Each structure stands twice: as C-alpha cells, then as structure tokens.
UniProtKB/TrEMBL annotation:
Leading EC class: transferase
O-GlcNAc transferase C-terminal domain residues: 155-300, 323-502
Superkingdom in the source lineage: Bacteria
Keywords: Glycosyltransferase, Repeat, TPR repeat, Transferase
Repeat positions for TPR: 72-105
Membership in a protein family: Belongs to the glycosyltransferase 41 family. O-GlcNAc transferase subfamily.
Any one Gene Ontology molecular-function term assigned to this protein's record: protein O-acetylglucosaminyltransferase activity
Pathway: Protein modification; protein glycosylation
Name this protein carries in UniProt: protein O-GlcNAc transferase
Native species: Rivihabitans pingtungensis
A Pfam family this chain is assigned to: TPR_19
Length: 517
C-alpha cells in the first residue's frame, strides 16, 4: 500500500474520531518510510497534532528537523505545537528565530503574531509593536501605502459590503456570523462573502444562500483585490486577522474605500489600511485605543452575536453537585490558554475548597504525555491527582452534553473564552472570569455584562477565589442560576441577530459616509 493511500486512510480515521486506528495507520506510514521521509513525517505530524496527539507529533517534527534542519515547515509546526501545549516561551523563541531567517514569509510572520496573543509574558506594548512591524512589512510588499479608491455617493442604492474569511464553515467565526449575515436588510446592505477556506459544510451553505458567494481560496492577493474591485465593494471586512487562512495582506492593496476588522481576531491587525477595528465598551475601555493601530469603533450592542448549534440539547441538566455532593469546576478551553499562572490560581482554588474537582477538556488532552504533565503541575501545587480529570476531543453534540458534568466554568487568562463561554452559559454553566487590559482578556466579561451577570467578573486573583468559593457554597443558588441562563441570554442583545445586523449596518454606513463624495 502506498504512502498516499495510507495517509488517506489516516485522514479518514482522524475525521471520524477513530484514534486507535489513526495512531496505528500513522505508525504504518512511519515504518514504511523508516522515518526517513521528511514529507511523510510532516504529513503524519499534522494529522496527529490536529487530532490532539501532541507527543508523537512532536517526535515526528523533531525527526524531520534532524533530517532537514533547513526545512522551515517542521520548525513552524513545532512552534505551533509548543503554543498548543502552553510552552509559550519556546514558541516565542522559535518564531523569533524563524522571522529572523525568513523575514518575508507571510505564514511565519502571521503565526508569530497569533502566538503573542496567547503568551502571558507578552505585554500590550510588545504586541502592538510587533503588529505595527507586520503592517509596515505588508505595505512594503505592495510598494508602500496605497491610495484609498473613490467612494461614490450611494444615491439610494444598498451599501455593498464584502466579508472575507477562511472560516465560513463550522468554526467559531462561521457559527457566530451566519445568522447576522442572514439578518442583513437587503435594502441597506448587499452582502458579499469571500470564502478563503475552501471548506464546504452546512454553515458555508447557509452563508452562501444569503450572500453573493465568492470562493477565493485559490486566488492570490492581487486576484482577490481585483475581484473585490470588480464587485464594487464599498466596505471590505476582515474576519480572520492573523489566524489560519488569513487574507489580510490583500487589504494592503486597498481594494475598497472602507476596510474594517471584526469578530475573527482579538487584537490590532497592525495594518493602517484598516479604517476601523470593531469592538465594544466591554472589550475596549478607553485605554485599549493605545494598543491598536486602527481607530476603535465601539458597537453599542456588543461585538458578539450568538445562536446555539441546531444539535444543542433542548434542556439544561441540573448542577452535578446536587447528586455528587461536591463541586466540579471545569474548563473546555484550548490548552494553549492554560499557562502556569492559570493553573496555579486554580490549584489555590482547589486548596480552598478541599472536596472540589476540576475537569479539563480539549483535543490535546487525549495525549497521555500532556495529561500527565497537567496532573504533575497540580501535584507540584499539592493537589491530589485524583481530583483532576482530563478529556480529549469529542463531536460537538457530545461536548455540549458534557457541560452536565460541571457546576462552574473557570475562564483562563489572559486569553479568555469566546464561543466556549457562550456555549457554557447556554448549557447553564456560569463562567467565572478575570478581565485584563487587552480585548482578548475581556471576551467573557463582555458576554457576562450583556446578560446582566457582571458579578461573575473578578477584579483580581483574590476576587476570583472569593467569587468561586461563594458560588460553590450555594448549590441551590447554582441550580436556580443554571436554569435562568438561557432566559437571560435570549433576552439580551447577545442573541438578537436582527438587532445586531442593524448595528453593523449603522456602523458600515457611518464609516462609508465619512469618505463618500
């Protein structure tokens, strides 16, 4: 059997969650190539990492580096792996080396910026400086800053708004944006969707049905910009920032009179060709403006609009503490957010509530090596390993059901939950957060403020512990709160796509009005 055939089998196993078969097939590939084929090693590492098996993925990448130390692909993937497992210093150092060696590589520069957002040791000033350097690099690639194209008066026609994303699919961005795009008033806005991801699923079909759909995954920046100009776009909106599949470099070509960043990124893009970064008062208190290259535009009803997945459970389960006799804290966030300070504070919480348990869930926690490392970290803080449970990935419907196993969700910091927090709240689980100085540290705080629960946001680590202990000591209150969260969410702007679409239209029209002639 050829390596290509085995890889196809491994991909099928990965997509269906057959982890034992995936591992066995990956080992067959390595055996067949005697672990001497760099491309095979990289392909296997990508499959393993995507399914959460970080330890064997790391071994493959390190072997690829030994065989081909100048091949940047293995180094990039290793830096991403370090970020996934919370080794931010190692990730940062490796990306610094890569940017030094390959300063004009778009993927490397982009990933380096994303990694900084997860890095608890990266200050807002450092993040802004690095983003600004990226913006200057992007403009230099196209011969400097390009002029703004003419902005003709609307004269009663709808504004032509183009949304650009690699995530118009069952992804956080696609799930959050689909109902908003569907709710746009066609008399005010004509919606164009530029899909850079090449994925087709139920979400992409929903978005295609309510927009003029453009598959631009195969287009380079010049061709994408030409398509935007040909479509006569008035306002071009980036929904990816520097995340995977980003087309932000095309915005440096200035194809639209107004260009904005919204939803899919959590910081400044660094590009001065972006006319507005859409946030809200909760994500962006006044001091946040200094962190951003772009002007901050504050949406009055919030940055997020949420609708539960069609397969979300119809009812909320009672808090498990009522039947188990102890509190279970939980976190279903990416392990890249679980830095040492987060784990140390959670260990203090477990000391303060001696019978409490902690349940962690993310795809990388299927890896025995990472699970052991997490458990060992808590043991170093004096926490019995039996009190820590780790779960790997599951299908989304199953994940939502697993919220029945936790009483209180703990938000990590400084990178807080977005969709993860929405889903926890929808499943009746209150989320305890500690907002910081950056927009990404204030995501859950914005959600809690929107649904009238600002008391779940801590001022500092002592307040975090106080709120958690107070909630844990009141199981009947937890039960009442749990069964009220859906009502709170449904009554808030957070779950009003029509109202959210109106505020977006108001923003786009106001921004266009500033430059229209």
């Amino acid at each position: 059997m050829t390596t290509a055939t085995l890889l196809a089998q491994a991909q099928a196993h990965a997509s269906t969650g057959q982890h034992d078969a995936l591992l066995a097939t990956c080992q067959r590939i390595l055996d067949a190539t005697h672990s001497q084929d760099v491309n095979a090693l990289l392909d296997v590492a990508a499959l393993l990492l995507g399914s959460g098996h970080v330890s064997p993925a790391q071994a493959c990448l390190q072997q690829a580096i030994r065989l081909a130390p100048q091949d940047y692909r293995a180094h990039v993937n290793l830096a991403n792996l370090y970020r996934e497992i919370g080794e931010h210093r190692a990730s940062r150092q490796l990306y610094q080396q890569l940017v030094h060696v390959l300063p004009d590589h778009p993927l490397i520069r982009r990933n380096a910026l994303v990694s900084l957002e997860y890095d608890p040791d990266a200050s807002p000033a450092v993040r802004r400086t690095m983003a600004q350097l990226w913006g200057e690099w992007a403009q230099a690639r196209v011969g400097g800053r390009q002029p703004r194209p003419p902005a003709p008066a609307l004269n009663g026609r709808p504004l032509r708004v183009g949304y650009v994303s690699a995530d118009f699919c069952q992804h956080t961005v696609g799930l959050l944006v689909q109902d908003v795009l569907r709710a746009h008033n066609p008399a005010r806005v004509s919606v164009f969707a530029y899909s850079a991801g090449g994925v087709s699923d139920w979400v992409s079909r929903n978005i295609a049905a309510c927009s003029q759909w453009r598959d631009v995954a195969a287009l380079d920046d010049a061709a994408l910009a030409a398509q935007v100009r040909a479509d006569g776009i008035d306002v071009l909106v980036d929904l990816s920032g520097h995340t995977a599949g980003s087309r932000l470099t095309a915005f440096a070509l200035r194809p639209a009179p107004v260009q904005a960043s919204w939803l899919g990124y959590f910081a400044t893009t660094g590009l001065s060709d972006i006319d507005a970064l859409l946030l809200d008062d909760w994500h962006a208190p006044p001091e946040v403006a200094a962190q951003c290259i772009e002007p901050v535009w504050r949406l009055p009803r919030g940055k997020f609009c949420y609708q539960p997945a069609p397969w979300a459970p119809a009812t909320v389960a009672p808090p498990p503490c009522l039947s188990q006799g102890h509190i279970t804290f939980g976190c279903f966030n990416n392990t890249s957010k679980l830095n040492p300070a987060v784990l140390a504070l959670w260990a203090r919480l477990l000391h303060a509530i001696p019978h409490a348990r902690l349940l962690l869930k993310w795809r990388t926690l299927i890896d025995a090596g990472l699970r052991q490392r997490v458990v060992n970290t808590f043991a170093e803080h004096g926490i019995d390993p039996a009190r820590i449970s780790c779960r790997g990935a599951s299908f989304h419907a199953d994940l939502l059901h697993e919220y029945a196993d936790i009483d209180i969700a703990l938000d990590p910091f400084p990178f807080t939950g977005g969709l993860t927090s929405c889903e926890a709240l929808w499943m009746g689980v209150p989320v305890l957060t500690w907002p910081g100085a950056t927009p990404v540290s204030r995501q859950t705080w914005a959600l809690l403020a929107a649904i009238g629960l600002p008391e779940l946001a801590a001022r500092d680590e002592h307040d975090y512990l106080r709120i958690a202990q107070q909630l844990a000591s009141q199981p009947e209150h937890l039960n009442t709160l749990r069964h009220s969260l859906r009502v709170r969410m449904q009554a808030s702007p957070l779950m009003d796509p029509a109202g959210f679409a109106r505020q977006l239209e108001d923003a786009w029209l106001a921004l266009y009005g500033r430059v229209a002639g």
